[in-house]
Design goal:
The protein is α/β, with parallel strands linked by helices. It has helices at about 20-35, 55-60, 60-70, 140-150, 165-180, 235-245; strands spanning about 5-10, 40, 70-75, 80, 85-95, 100-105, 125, 130-135, 155-160, 185-190, 200-205, 210-215, 220-230. It has six helices and 13 strands.
Length: about 250
């Protein structure tokens, strides 16, 4: 039995203000919606002001688009500032046009550690399929992706913001996580003079028991989607996890 879903990414440029950025990206979201894309993911901190005070107000246009096309939208990852703590979160807009939850960044990166409290839970969201959100630096740590998959994720999305000199190792991390867990990964990045784009849609292909990645890279500001049969990975994933032995 097949489980067919159409999954997408948007690679963004940099904007002078949030309103202009959201207006421009809304056009790409609508295009992906018309192409019957089920879930779309955007990069981490792609807006000029990434400290979002009111997510409902800031992403009102995205919520309307999600409802219009019955599409799940992961609008990126941003600072959420509250009296008790500051977090980096990835909010999830469900296909009915409302926020259905959020994933906190588990491993703040470098300068972020001074003010960002780490997340404590890998959450599974279930709309067109079961998915998890691995925020940027979380991709470096194998346990994060593995925990999502063992909790039932069928695909992983990764809102990221990777500088140009970090693109090569980042792409390695994303591909290895896909291979380790036998799961497709869609990783979105910002592309401008500082951040290196090359967003990845990673599928897996198997030939005579050897699994390799099949990669689609994005160039410039654009949106791309791909159809996946999520059931085709289950047998290989089960074998991989069964083969893993306990040791000290």
């Amino acid at each position: 039995m097949k489980l067919m879903v159409k999954l997408g990414l948007i690679q963004t440029a940099q904007y002078t203000d949030n309103k202009k950025g959201i207006l421009q990206i809304s056009k790409i979201l609508k295009k992906l919606g018309r192409e019957n894309t089920d879930i779309v993911c955007l990069p981490e901190q792609w807006l000029k002001n990434n400290e979002i005070e009111d997510f409902d107000l800031e992403f009102l246009d995205f919520k309307k688009i999600a409802k219009e096309f019955s599409m799940t939208i992961i609008p990126g990852a941003f600072y959420e500032i509250r009296k008790q703590k500051t977090s980096i979160i990835s909010p999830i807009i469900g296909p009915k046009g409302e926020f259905i939850g959020k994933q906190e960044k588990i491993h703040p990166f470098d300068y972020e550690k001074d003010k960002v409290k780490p997340g404590k839970e890998a959450k599974i969201f279930n709309t067109a399929c079961r998915f998890g959100v691995v925020i940027c630096y979380d991709m470096v740590f194998p346990k994060v992706a593995n925990t999502f998959v063992k909790k039932g994720a069928q695909v992983l999305f990764s809102p990221s913001r990777i500088v140009r000199r970090g693109i090569e190792p980042w792409q390695m991390y994303v591909q290895v996580r896909a291979l380790e867990n036998r799961i497709p990964i869609l990783a979105a990045n910002v592309e401008n003079h500082k951040f290196g784009g090359n967003s990845l849609i990673i599928d897996l292909t198997e030939n005579n028991k050897v699994v390799t990645t099949k990669n689609m890279k994005l160039n410039g500001e654009c949106g791309k989607s791909k159809e996946f049969d999520l059931h085709k990975y289950e047998k290989s994933r089960k074998i991989r996890f069964t083969d893993s032995n306990n040791f000290q």
